Amino acid sequence: MSAPKVQLLLTGNELMTGDIVDSNSAMMAQVLKDIGLGIYRKVTVADDLALLVSEITYIASTSDILIINGGLGPTVDDLTAQALAVAIGKDLSQHPQALAHLTNWCQQRGTELNGPNLKQAILPKDCQIIANKKGSAVGFFVRYNHCDIYCTPGVPHELETMLIEQIVPTISEDLPRDLITDVTRLQVFGLGESSLQKMINEQLPEWPAAIELGFRAGMPLLEVKLTTNTQKGLSMKSAWQKRLTKVLGDHLIAEIKGKPKSLAEHLLNQLHQHNLKITTAESCTGGLIASKLTEISGSSMNFEAGFVTYSNEMKTAMLDVPTNLFEQYGAVSEKVVIAMAKGSLVKSNADLTIAVSGVAGPNGGTEEKPVGTVWFAWGSIDNIKTQCLLIPYKRYKFQQFVAAIGLDLLRRYQQNITTIPNYIIERSFTDQ
Q1: How many domains does the structure of the chain reveal?
Q2: Half-sphere exposure of 3 (CA within 13 A, CB side)
Q3: Residue 11 lies in a domain
Q4: Cis? peptide before 169, omega within 30° of 0
Q5: Which residues contact 212 (CB under 8 A, 6 or more apart)?
Q6: pLDDT of 249-281, one tens digit each?
Q7: How far is it, in rounded angstroms, from Cα 238 to Cα 244?
Q8: Could you tell me the CATH number of the domain that includes residue 150?
Q9: Neighbouring-strand partners of residue 387
Q10: What is the largest CA-CA distance in the chain?
């Protein structure tokens, strides 16, 4: 038995005009691929009732699964429920489960359930509700003309949660028993796609065709996927994954189980296991490292304070950096970043720190210290390590990369990893 045909129908004037970039269909394709399903056809239409009805009618007759994305909101141009009702010949009516969700959603926010919001509870009769944990618009499901139709919200994080937690498990239950899909996802930091592919070509030249190797670049983590759809590939996969893990070495952060974790989350989990506290002393990143840590719920168990000392005066006032160091070495120097690191540990009484000082640009660089120069200092009060790198990116990307490297250096320190990461080999720099 073959895999079911899947089509996507995306709706919204903003998609057609380019005011919103369609990232939802890419995310849906990735999630569905993990269970062995490809997208047979994708259509994007404006908020037009006749167009929507026409597409729903056609797709329901030519596919097994239709996912409609968007058009579930409270405004007059949100037409998905109405279009679906017309296409399948059902009346619209107030759905009690959707109404209960809306009522609870408004009560939690202290807002009134008004007429426009009530529109989100007017759905095709007899449809099944798909809960929305994050927004006001529930999703809904109908089966029509042997096609399973799922209607989903356009807000990306609402869609992703609904898709992963509810829709994909439902679809998976009905997949053919002989359809094998096994996916392993690995998080990697410090290796780019081309560098990693070169390493694999050289160290694993006989990589088997039965195991599909894929890369998804991200900032800052690269995702490596091993996918097999055959019994042969499945039987080989464990052994080849072990070989790939050796190639990745200490650049491998984790195998993804469920929702991917950030570098900050991985680090905080390690610190929590050992009851360690961390602090930060940031100049060129402006508090970005601390922000990434405090994004994580429960981070206060291991992070109590961070220091953003952008000017030399504040480095001295807040972290006791001696003023003569600026005169002799400059703010972007090993001496200053060591003093920042030690000062942050003394002031916060934390166990570990990461300190950074650099030239974020686009101005301020010199021949000795060009834009992109950054000094790192990290470790504990009696064991501070340092490194100078050259990261010649535009300001935003520079700050993101510096923050990620800082978190990774602490991960490596806490795990007693002594091998040199690829980003130090490639970007090591001295300003002396």
Answers
A1: 3
A2: 17
A3: yes
A4: no
A5: 225, 226, 227, 228, 229
A6: 999 999 998 788 999 999 999 999 999 999 999
A7: 10
A8: 3.40.980.10
A9: 376
A10: 81
